[in-house]
Amino acid sequence: MIVETYSAQETYELGKRLGKEAAAGEVYCLDGDLGTGKTVFTQGFAAGLGIEGPVNSPTFTILQQYEEGRLPLYHFDVYRIGDVEEMDEIGYEDCFYGNGVSLVEWSELIREILPERVIRVRLEKDLEKGFDYRRITVEGKE
Predict the structure, then answer these.
(1) Architecture per CATH, 2-139
(2) d(Cα 64, Cα 77) in Å, to the nearest integer?
(3) What whole-number distance in Å separates Cα of residue 131 and Cα of residue 86?
(4) N or C: which terminus of the chain carries fewer CB neighbours within 10 A?
(5) How many CB atoms lie within 10 A of CB 117?
(6) Long-range CB contact pairs, 111-119, < 8 A, 24+
(7) How far apart (Å, rounded) are the C-alpha atoms in residues 56 and 75?
(8) What is the rounded distance in angstroms from the CA atom of residue 64 to the CA atom of residue 55?
(9) What are the mean pLDDT values of the chain's consecutive 10-residue runs (142 residues total)?
(10) Assign residue 53 a region: left if phi > 0, alpha if psi is -120 to 50, beta otherwise?
(11) Burial call 15-24: b when 16+ CB within 10 Å, e when fewer
(12) Which of 27, 42, 36, 56 is CA-nearest to residue 118?
């Protein structure tokens, strides 16, 4: 699926729609350059799960957990990870293979430990189409 959005709100709404459809055990890999809307997408995704509190990128903590939705949300930002072994220290397997949904920003940095089946979300900008334009490709979601 390829979706073009023209505002942060539209990116949020796509995330929200996918959050409503999310199932336990799914791992969403969010990839795209800085400023492409990964956190906005994640905020919408969290809203789709029924999470009402603030959702921010866990850039310095690697993992933020949200338990108050219909499913737990494990939001990873592995941009600053030094070594994939750091993921063991935070118990990533409990998240990836547990009863919640995992969203992993910058997932290409930990490719070797991702489950075989993931849902890939690629966010891209094209400034020629406008500052807020995003091309969002979703693969692996039936």
Answers:
(1) 3-Layer(aba) Sandwich (3.40)
(2) 9
(3) 35
(4) C
(5) 9
(6) 112/84, 113/84, 113/87, 114/27, 114/29, 115/27, 117/27, 118/27, 118/28, 118/29, 119/26, 119/27, 119/28, 119/29
(7) 9
(8) 9
(9) 93 95 94 87 94 76 88 91 85 91 92 93 91 93 74
(10) beta
(11) bbebbeebee
(12) 27
- What's the CA gap between 104 and 124, in Å, rounded? 16
What is the enclosing helix (H) or strand (E) of 40?
helix 38-48
- Amino acid at residue number 109: L
Rounded CA-CA distance 135/126 in Å is: 8
The structure's pTM equals 0.90
From the CB of residue 74, how many other CB atoms can be counted at a distance below 10 Å? Answer: 24
